[in-house]
Amino acid sequence: MKKTFRGGTHPPEWKLTAEQPGEKLKLPEKVYVPILQHIGAPAIPLVKKGDEVKKGQPIADPGGFVSVPVHSPVSGKVVSIGTYPHAFGRDVETITIESDGADEWHENIKEDADWESVDAKTIRERVRNAGLAGMGGAAFPTHVKLSPPEEKPINTVIINGAECEPYLTSDHRLMLEKPAEILAGAQIVSKAVGAKRTFVGIEDNKPDAVSVLKKAVKDGKFDIKVVSLPVKYPQGAEKQLINAITGREVPPPPGLPMDVGCLVQNVGSCVAIYNAVRFNKPLIERYVTVSGHAVNNPVNLIARIGTPFSELVEAAGGYTKDAAKLLNGGPMMGSAQWTDMVPVIKGTSGIVVLNKEEAYISDEQPCICCGRCISVCPVFLLPTNIARLAEFERFEDAENLGALECMECGSCTYVCPSKRNLVHHIRFGKTSIMALKKKEAQQTKSKGA
Amino acid sequence: MDFGILGAIVSVGGLGLIFGGGLAYASKLFYVYVDPRVEEVDEELPGANCGACGLAGCRQMALAVVEGKLTAAECPVANDEARAKVAAIMGTDAVTAEEMVAVVYCQGSPDHCVERFDYQGVKSCTAAELVGGGFKACTYGCLGLGECVDACQFDAMLMGEDKLPKVIEANCTGCGKCVEACPRGIMAMIPKNAYIYNACVNQDRGKTVKNVCDIGCTGCTLCANPKTTPSGMITMNKETNLPIFHYSIEDDSVLSVFKCPPRSIIDKLNRPEPPKPPKPEKKEKPVVEKQE
C-alpha cells in the first residue's frame, strides 16, 4: 500500500489541461507589479514615476528579513505607482510599468560558470536577491525557509509535486518540461541546508511526471528518490506531505516542518532557485494554469508576473456565457476575485473560472452531526464544533478546541452535507481570537506602564 | 402509645424551633457586613446590566461606587436625576455627564455605493470583512450585516431597508456597545444636543471617494472654512481627510450642511437652509474698488 496521511478527501480532479504544453504568453503592454506578493513585510519601491527599467532590474527592496525584493518583469518605463486591485483582496501599492517591447535583460544578470561550487551562504543570498517566494500558493519567502536555526538541523528535503488542487496542472507541466532544472534546484536546496535525503513527492494521477523524473534522476545520477503517492487532498500541504513521505508528524502551530528536520519546496520554486543560483535570474515569470469549465480553451501559460488576469483568460479563449466565479488558485483553497484586473503574482499557480452550476452555494442548513468533517480533517480538529462556537462568539472555547491550528484547507466545507460555511466560520473565529489576544496584550501593557 | 394529632404538632413544631434556632445562630456567626448604601445605589442605577461601565453589571458598579472607585458619571445609561440621587447617597457633589447618543457615520446604501461582488458567506460584518476587504466598493463603508444591531441591548437599533442601521434615539442610552461591535468604526457617539455630524468615514480623497460612493466625504475642507463655520466648531483632520466636530463650541449654524458638495454632513433636525445675506455686500465691494 502506498504511503499517505490520515484524513483528507478526494474531490473530482478535473485536470483539463494535463496534456497542454506550457505556452509563452505574449508580452503584455503594461504590467502591474504589487510590492506585496509574499507573506511578510511589503517591499519598499526603489523607482519613481518616469524611470526607465530593464527586465530583471530590482524595483523594490525587501522591507525586513521576512520579505523579498521585487523585480521588473519587462523592460520599459514606470508609468505610475499607486494602489491597484490585488489577488489578496485589498488594494495594494503597485508599480505599473509600460513595456517598450524590447524585453532587454538588465546587465547584472549573467551566468555564473562556477555555480556548482558556491557555498550555502551565497545560495541564500542569491535566492533572496532573486525575490523568491514559495510558488505553491502561500508565497512564503524562500530564503527564510533555507535559513533554519542551528538547533534545528534539516536532514530531509521534500520537493512538492503533489498538486492536489483540482484543475491546476502548472506543476505537472513543469515536471514534464523541466525535470533536470527541478532536480538541480532540489540539489541546491539540499546543499544549502545540509540535508542527507531528498525526495520528490508526486500524486499517482501523474504517472508520466513520475516516470520522467525517475528517468532524469537516472540520467543525471542524482541522489534523489521519486515517491508516488495516492491521490488525496490536501496532499500538497507541507505538513501532510511530510507525514505521507517520512511518517513524521509536525507539531501543531507554532510547530514548523524544521521541528521534525524537514524542508518542503514546491517544484516551481526549485526551478526558480536553480535559475537564481546559476544564472542570477530573478523570479519574473511562472507557469499559470488557466482552467475551469467557464473558459473556452483551458491552457497552461508561462506568464510574466504582473500580467492582468484578463489577458490570461483571453489567451484561454475568453469566458463562456455562464462564467460566474473567478479564482486565484484552485477551487479548494483559492480566493475568489471581484475583478479580472488583478495581476499575476509569485504565488498564482492557476486561474480557475467556475460556471454558474459549479459556483452555486446553497443556503446553510443546520448541522446534522454526521461527523464527516471530523473524519476528513487532516489536522484532527472538530470543525463543526469550532465553527459553532465561533458562530456564537464563544471564542475562548473555540481556541481551546484548537481553532488556531486550522489551516483552512476546506476539506470540511467540501464534504459537509448541510453546506455549512465551516472554514469561513472558523476563519472568523481565528481572526476574533487573534484580535482578543491583541487587545489583552495591550491592556496588560498599559497596566504595567 | 398514641398521641394523635397533638404528637405530630409537638414533634414538627419542636423540629422547627431547633432548626430555626440553628439558622438564627448561623446568621450571627457567618454575618457579612454589606454597606447599606450598595443596595441604595443599586436601586438608582438603570439595572440593565449592559456592561458599558466596564464591569459585569449594575451590582458590581454599585459596589465600585461605594468603594469610591467609580462615580455615577461612569454609567452612560443613567440620567442626571439618577446621578444626583447616587451622589446624595454617597454624600458627594452631584456629577453630571453629557448625554450621548449613537449615530451612523455612513449613508452608503446600495443606491449610493455599489457592491463589488455578491457575498455568500457568514452573515456577520467581521466575517464579511475577511473576504477581500468587504463586498462594498468603499472599503470604509457600512457592510450592513447588523453586528451593531445585534450588540444593542436597549432595542435602540434596527436595520433599515436601505441596508444601513438606524438608531432609535428615544431608546438609545449611549452605552457605546454598538461602537465596540462595529469592525469599521462607523458607529459613533455624539452629545444628545448636537445635531450636525459628518456621516462618512472614508479617509481617501476626492476622486477615489467619488469613484466608489456619490455621497461620501471627499475631504474638500469647505465645511471647515472660516466663512462657513466662523465659530471654529469644525476643523479638518489632515491625516484622515475628515472634518472633526468640536461639540464643546456652541454653534447653531447649519450652513456647513448645505455647503458640503456631496451632502455627507447631516442635520438631524432637517433645518431649512439659512438665507444668504452676505451676497449683496460682496457685490457692492468690487464696484467701490473700481470707482477708486
Q: What's a quick, concise take on this entry?
A:
Chain A is of the alpha/beta class and 449 residues long. Chain A has helices spanning 120-129, 142-145, 170-177, 179-193, 207-220, 238-246, 267-279, 309-315, 356-359, 372-376, 383-391, 395-400, 411-415, 422-448; strands at 23-24, 30-34, 44-45, 52-53, 58-61, 70-71, 76-84, 92-99, 156-161, 197-203, 225-229, 262-266, 285-291, 299-304, 323-328, 335-337, 350-355.
Q: In what range is the share of β-strand residues of chain A?
A: 15-25%
Compute the average pLDDT of chain B.
Answer: 86
Shape of chain B: elongated
- The proportion of residues forming helix of chain A, as a percent range, comes to 25-40%
Give the CATH H-level superfamily of one domain in chain A: NADH-ubiquinone oxidoreductase 51kDa subunit
Largest protein interface, residues of each chain: A-B, 17 and 14 residues
Name of the level-1 CATH class of the largest domain in chain B: Alpha Beta
What is the level 1 CATH name of one domain in chain A? Answer: Alpha Beta
Q: What is the first-to-last residue Cα distance of chain B?
A: 133 Å
N to C succession of SSEs of chain B:
HHHHEHHEEHEEHEEHEH
Low-confidence stretches of chain B: none
CATH architecture of the largest domain in chain B: 2-Layer Sandwich
Query: Count the strands of chain A?
Result: 17
| Whole-number tally of structural domains of chain B | 3
Tell me which CATH architecture of one domain in chain A applies here: 3-Layer(aba) Sandwich
Biggest sheet features of chain B? 2 strands, antiparallel
Q: Could you describe the largest sheet of chain A, including whether it forms a barrel?
A: 6 strands, mixed
Please give the count of helices of chain B: 10
**In angstroms, what is the radius of gyration of chain B?**
29 Å
Physical arrangement of strands within the biggest beta sheet of chain B: 1-4
